[in-house]
Amino acid sequence: SSGINAEYGEVLVGKTKPVNNTSSVVVDELLTFKTKGDPLAIKLHFELMDKDDVGDDDQVGSGSFNPSVEESLENQLIHLKYKGKDIGSISITVKIREIVLV
Predict the structure, then answer these.
(1) In the sheet where 44-50 sits, what is the strand order?
(2) I want to staple 1 with a disulfide (CB 3.0 to 4.6 A). Which of 32, 41, 46, 51 is the partner?
């Protein structure tokens, strides 16, 4: 089975549920986390993980998203690579909400 880990500043901020025995899947999950400072200044890193029943999970692909250089935050395609080769892609939408504490 495999799943996606999402990291911000080398901190795991979320992961998708593992999916079994497929090379193509649609995952519709919401990951929510707080940022420090400007939320557009963050860089998200995604890792495609092969989930192992025994031992550590293995990374089989990764890619990054930097919202500060994108024109849009919706339906962005992130190309995943493994050992320098394209292995697929994921599509994400980033929504930013300002929370005011009173």
Answers:
(1) 11-15, 2-8, 44-50, 58-65, 76-82, 85-92
(2) 51
pLDDT in tens, 70-79: 989 999 999 9
Closest of 63, 58, 55 to residue 87, by C-alpha? 63
pTM over 0.85: no
Q: Rounded to whole angstroms, how far apart are CA atoms 42 and 57? A: 26
User: CA 69, CA 75: separation in Å to the nearest integer?
Assistant: 15
The rounded distance, in Å, linking the Cα atoms of 66 and 85 is 20
